[in-house]
C-alpha cells in the first residue's frame, strides 16, 4: 500500500492543478484566451446581452486589472505588504473589485453568491459597473477610455476629473481602449471561423 502513496499524491496534485484557474498564456489574443477557457465565451456573451457592453471591453478591463488572474491582489501590496500607517486595499480577483463596491453589486443585482474569483461573476460586475458609469457619469458603453477612468476613480472621482493630473492612469485607459479594439476585432474573426469550423468556444 505504501508504495502507491507517491503516485496517489501525484494524482491528487494533478487534479488540483487542473481545477485551479490559471491566467491565459496568450493574453493579447482573444481567440486563444477563449479557446483555452471555453466557458468564458458564454459568460462574455451573457454580460453583453444583459448590460450592452462588448466582450472586448470586458476582456480589456480584466487584462488591465488582473492579467486574468482569478486571485490577483494589488501589485504593490503583494510586493511590499501593507505599508505602516496605510490601509490595505481590499481589491481582489479578476476585476480587482473593492469589498464595498462588490457588496453594492451583489445587493443591486441580487447576485448574493457572486465571487470575485469566478470569471462569470467578474465580467458581470464589469458590465454592471459600466452601466452605472453610463447612468451616473454619462459615459457611452462604447467608450472604453472613459469607462476605465470611471472604473478606476469611481463615479464621484470621475465626475470631479480626479484623473486629470494622473498621466499614468490616462496611459492605462489608452491601453484599455487599444486592447478593446483589438479584442473585438479578433472576436469578430473568431466568430466567423467558429461558424465555418466549430473549432472555437
Automatic annotation (TrEMBL):
The residues the entry assigns to the signal sequence are: 1-27
Matches recorded under InterPro entries: Lysozyme-like_dom_sf, SLT_4
**Which top-level group of life is the source organism from?**
Bacteria
One Pfam assignment: SLT_4
List each copy of the Transglycosylase SLT domain by range: 8-190
Q: Which residues, by range, are in coiled-coil regions?
A: none
Q: PROSITE patterns this protein is in?
A: PROKAR_LIPOPROTEIN
The UniProt keywords, alphabetically, are: Signal
Q: Which SUPFAM superfamilies match?
A: Lysozyme-like
Q: What is this protein called?
A: Transglycosylase SLT domain-containing protein
Which species expresses this protein natively? Alkalicaulis satelles
Amino acid at each position: 500500500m505504501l508504495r502507491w502513496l507517491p503516485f496517489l499524491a501525484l494524482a491528487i496534485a494533478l487534479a488540483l492543478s487542473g481545477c485551479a484557474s490559471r491566467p491565459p498564456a496568450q493574453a493579447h489574443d482573444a481567440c486563444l484566451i477563449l479557446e483555452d477557457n471555453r466557458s468564458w465565451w458564454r459568460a462574455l456573451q451573457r454580460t453583453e446581452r444583459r448590460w450592452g457592453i462588448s466582450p472586448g471591453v470586458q476582456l480589456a478591463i480584466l487584462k488591465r486589472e488582473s492579467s486574468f488572474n482569478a486571485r490577483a491582489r494589488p501589485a504593490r501590496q503583494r510586493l511590499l505588504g501593507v505599508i505602516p500607517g496605510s490601509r490595505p486595499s481590499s481589491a481582489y480577483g479578476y476585476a480587482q473589485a473593492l469589498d464595498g463596491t462588490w457588496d453594492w453589486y451583489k445587493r443591486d443585482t441580487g447576485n448574493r453568491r457572486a465571487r470575485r474569483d469566478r470569471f462569470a461573476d467578474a465580467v458581470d460586475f464589469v458590465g454592471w459597473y459600466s452601466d452605472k458609469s453610463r447612468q451616473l457619469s454619462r459615459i457611452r458603453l462604447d467608450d472604453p477610455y472613459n469607462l476605465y477612468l470611471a472604473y478606476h476613480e469611481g463615479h464621484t472621482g470621475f465626475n470631479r476629473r480626479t484623473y486629470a493630473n494622473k498621466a499614468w492612469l490616462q496611459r492605462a485607459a489608452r491601453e484599455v481602449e487599444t486592447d478593446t479594439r483589438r479584442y473585438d476585432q479578433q472576436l469578430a474573426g473568431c466568430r466567423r471561423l467558429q461558424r465555418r469550423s466549430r473549432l472555437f468556444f
